[in-house]
């Protein structure tokens, strides 16, 4: 029988249990997927801890890739042995799973299953942030928080390809070099540098039109201070914890700022949106202009160890769970 990571109660990494599961046959509109790799993301931590509640018990994981082994009634465009990937539907920490066929995209030969598992959610998130939430233009200077993380490295490379100047925050000199090698023009080591002052210095006091912030509580208010008048604060994650409530008048006081908290689901809700996002990602990765850096690999059964490393900020780039 196949195995999966199951969560029966929310809490720390120790609640991630390796168990045998019954998968069964796919229902109408579903396929059975034999997974080859799953991605690790901070949203998995939010699900595990209960910050983003899920019905118990559940299998975490929102990103993966593998091979179709069975097809349910009514499924069009997919068949057995097709290589596919997804970023979104929960249940990825499993050897086999059922999944709605309309949330899957076919993988081109140029993209391996490990690559796909490392980049689907993060890469489509980057595509959403750069091309829809705030459409980055050549000549703009932008700020990327956690520039050496999975989304951060993709954002830096893609924004650079679009002609932007990229400022990024990182936690160490090693991560600064990693970010620099992936398109970040000005890595700021936030543990010893004031990133607000550095952004002002780099931009000659003009600040930036957009901040992409996946860190949350620890950086949110200072991120607002980096924005030019009518700038866009894009809060897309909260790795350090949720942002505390604040009066919206602060946005007016700091320059009539815009604030958004986007989710990939709302930007890839239709089949056409999903395919556009995935295909743009596949194209830019296949071109070599964006490289997906798999920096850590853990066996799926060792998901708890992977979560500990992620929460301790001991990871950089992307992490995959191998199956």
Automatic annotation (TrEMBL):
Key words, A-Z: NADP, Oxidoreductase
Domain of life of the organism encoding this protein: Bacteria
Keyword hit for Oxidoreductase: yes
Residue intervals of the Enoyl reductase (ER) domain: 11-321
Parts forming coiled coils: none
SUPFAM superfamilies, per the entry: GroES-like (SSF50129), NAD(P)-binding Rossmann-fold domains (SSF51735)
Residues of the signal peptide: none
The keyword Cytoplasm appears for this protein: no
PROSITE patterns: QOR_ZETA_CRYSTAL (PS01162)
PANTHER family assigned: QUINONE OXIDOREDUCTASE PIG3-RELATED, QUINONE OXIDOREDUCTASE-RELATED
Protein's name in the database: Quinone oxidoreductase
Species classification: Bacteria, Pseudomonadati, Pseudomonadota, Alphaproteobacteria, Sphingomonadales
């Amino acid at each position: 029988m196949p195995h999966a990571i199951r969560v029966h109660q929310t809490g720390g990494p120790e609640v991630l249990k390796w168990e045998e599961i019954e998968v069964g046959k796919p229902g109408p509109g579903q396929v059975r997927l034999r997974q080859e790799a799953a991605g690790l993301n901070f949203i998995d931590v939010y699900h595990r801890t209960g910050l983003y509640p899920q019905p118990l018990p559940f299998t975490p994981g929102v990103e993966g890739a593998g091979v179709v082994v069975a097809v349910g009634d009514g499924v069009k465009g997919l068949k057995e042995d097709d290589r596919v990937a997804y970023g979104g539907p929960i249940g990825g920490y499993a050897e086999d799973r059922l999944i709605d066929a309309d949330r899957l995209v076919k993988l081109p030969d140029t993209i391996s299953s490990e690559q796909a598992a490392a980049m689907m959610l993060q890469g489509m998130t980057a595509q959403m942030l750069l091309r829809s939430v705030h459409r980055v233009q050549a000549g703009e200077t932008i700020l990327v928080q956690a520039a050496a993380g999975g989304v951060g490295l993709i954002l830096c490379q893609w924004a650079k390809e679009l002609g932007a100047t990229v400022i990024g925050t990182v936690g160490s000199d090693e991560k600064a070099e990693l970010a620099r090698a992936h398109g970040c023009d000005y890595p700021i080591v936030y543990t010893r540098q004031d990133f607000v002052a550095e952004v002002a210095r780099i931009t000659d006091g003009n600040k930036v039109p957009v901040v992409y912030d996946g860190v949350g509580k620890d950086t949110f208010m200072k991120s607002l201070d980096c924005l030019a008048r009518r700038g866009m604060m894009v809060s897309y994650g909260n790795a350090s914890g949720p942002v505390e409530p604040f009066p919206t008048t602060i946005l007016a006081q700091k320059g009539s700022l815009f604030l958004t908290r986007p989710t990939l689901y709302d930007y890839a809700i239709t089949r056409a949106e999903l395919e556009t996002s995935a295909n743009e990602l596949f194209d830019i990765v296949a071109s070599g202009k964006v490289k997906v850096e798999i920096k850590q690999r853990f066996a799926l059964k060792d998901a708890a160890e992977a979560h500990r490393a992620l929460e301790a900020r001991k990871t950089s780039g992307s992490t995959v769970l191998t199956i």
